[in-house]
Amino acid sequence: MRRIVRNLLKESGYTEADEAEDGVVALHKLRNSKFDFVVTDINMPNMNGFQLLTEIKSDEKLKHLPVLMVTAEARKEDIVAAAQGGAAGYIVKPFTKATLEEKVNLILKKVGLG
């Protein structure tokens, strides 16, 4: 799924998209490179998307990053938890390129990057 999201982002003009196999690797990449935006699945091994969101929002150097949460389930409690945790948006699989593009563009406009 992460390769699909990465390819959809590249097709949408976000050519420098990167990917990580889990939240631990993602956090390491975020702390050691420069990123403008994070798309994370909620269900990942080693560190799930909620844990990653918490780490990002509690890190002085990363807390400004907008985070779009992706999940296969549209559970109300997950949507509420994502919003309370500071996620910029939430998207449910399966989704189209247009839906992803629209969400990303909307979030980037909100934070002044779009």
TrEMBL record:
<dbReference type="InterPro" id="IPR052048">
    <property type="entry name" value="ST_Response_Regulator"/>
</dbReference>
<dbReference type="InterPro" id="IPR011006">
    <property type="entry name" value="CheY-like_superfamily"/>
</dbReference>
<feature type="modified residue" description="4-aspartylphosphate">
    <location>
        <position position="41"/>
    </location>
</feature>
<keyword id="KW-0597">Phosphoprotein</keyword>
<dbReference type="Pfam" id="PF00072">
    <property type="entry name" value="Response_reg"/>
</dbReference>
<protein>
    <submittedName>
        <fullName>Response regulator</fullName>
    </submittedName>
</protein>
<dbReference type="InterPro" id="IPR001789">
    <property type="entry name" value="Sig_transdc_resp-reg_receiver"/>
</dbReference>
<feature type="domain" description="Response regulatory">
    <location>
        <begin position="1"/>
        <end position="108"/>
    </location>
</feature>
